[in-house]
Amino acid sequence: MIYWISMGLVTAMLAVSALAYLFHQATIDGVRDLGFPDHFRIELAVLKLIAVIVLLAPQIPFQVTEWAYAGVALFFVTSIVAHAAHGDPWVLNLINVVLLLLLATSRIYHSGL
Asked: What's the domain count of the chain?
């Protein structure tokens, strides 16, 4: 139950975020304000959608899932650094830290550690 709640929250955020990266003008402008080019924004959106599929599909080999966990964790850490360097409100980093903790919780319960 803990695994599915934490994974559901993380993958829902990834999916909503990916769609916002592609279609929500304020988010598109926000990514540009952080100094990232448009092609990187689109790449992140696609990678987030791939991560959602990999993390939720039970037939995906565990080694592939591990790479998805690592990639999503790297995204959250990079997001924290980018928002901190940009001087954005602390609540953005708090959300990313919470999501990183949910991701870690999901990973721990996924493997049965």
From this structure: 1
